[in-house]
Amino acid sequence: MDAKTFTAYPASAAFGPQRNCSDRKSFVRTKSTCRLSNSRYPHFALLVFLFVTPSASFGHPQDNPGQMLKRQFDAAKTSLAANDIVRADLAYRQSIAIGLRQLGNLSLSRGQYEQATRYLDEAVKQTPEDFGLQVEAAIAWFRRGDVNKAKAQIDAVLAKEPDNARAHNVLGRIYLFEGNPQASIKELNAAVAQQADFETVYFLAIACLKDKKVSEAGELFSKLQATTGDSAALHVLFGRAYIVTHFPEPAVAEFRKAIELDPKYPRAHSLLGYAYLDHLNEQGYPLAQAMFRQELKIQPNDYLTLVLLGLTDVSLRDYAAAESVLLHATRVRPDGAAPYLYLGEAYTSTQRIKEAVNALQKYVALVHNPEEFHRDLGRGYFLLGQGLLRLGRLEEAKKALARSQQLREAEFKYDQEHMFFDQDHQLEAKETSDKGESHSSDRIAGLLESGTADEQSTQAMAQGGVSTDLEPQPVVVQQPQESAAVRQYRTFAAEVLASSYNDLGVMRAKASKFAEASEFFKQAAAWNPGLPGLDRNWGFASFRAEQYSDAVPPLERYLAAHPDDAFVRQLLGLSYFIEEKYPQTVEVLRPFFKNPPDDPGLLFAWGTALVRTRQSEGAADIFRRLLLQNANNASVHFLLGQAHAQQEDYPNASNELKTALQLDPRLPEAHYYAGLVFLHQGQFEPAAAEFRSELELRPGDPIATYHLGYTLLAQGQLPEAVAILQKVIQVKPDYEPAQFELGRALLQQGDASGAVQRLEIATKLTPDHDAAFFQLSQAYRRAGRIPEAADTLAKYRRLIEANRLKKRESL
Question: What are φ and ψ of residue 322, in 5° steps?
Answer without folding.
Answer: -60, -45
